[in-house]
Write a structure and sequence with these properties.
The protein is built from four helices and six strands. The protein has 134 residues and is an alpha/beta fold. The protein has a six-stranded mixed β-sheet, sandwiched between helices.
Length: 134
């Protein structure tokens, strides 16, 4: 089942899908993100893990635009401890082609890599291969 989260204008900003064959959740982010969209998406992912434990996240920023740095403190201080307690161990991160998205995820990796295995990749297939090996 795919969970699609939408902005007020109806556009999708995140899809979340549990993929049982690989035992991961594929989170695909679209467009610009705000603290609110990141929090909503993060808590939706947390609810999914509480219903269907899953140790891996394929976090896909190929279609993300701009920075989301304003959410990094919340991700570090709130989401990360909660998601670890729900069973997440590894994040395969596909980086955005947007430089501001890249800088945001590099900052986040620095903040949480001592708590979770998070590795950055330029392509979806490379991230998938790494995550399958975890």
């Amino acid at each position: 089942m795919i969970h699609s989260l939408r902005r007020g204008d109806g556009s999708i900003y995140l899809t979340l899908e549990y993929q049982p064959a690989d035992n991961w959740v594929h989170a695909h982010w679209y467009g610009r993100q705000t603290l609110s969209t990141v929090m909503d998406g993060g808590l939706t992912h947390l609810d999914m893990l509480r219903q269907q434990p899953c140790p891996k996240l394929l976090n896909d920023h190929r279609d993300l635009v701009g920075t989301f740095s304003e959410a990094n403190a919340w991700i570090q201080e709130v989401w990360t401890p909660l998601i670890i307690s729900a069973g997440l161990h590894s994040i395969g991160q596909v980086v955005s082609p947007d430089i501001f998205g890249q800088l945001s995820i590099e900052d986040l990796q620095h903040r949480i890599s001592d708590q979770l295995d998070i590795y950055l990749f330029d392509s979806l297939p490379t991230a998938q291969s790494w995550l399958r090996a975890q």
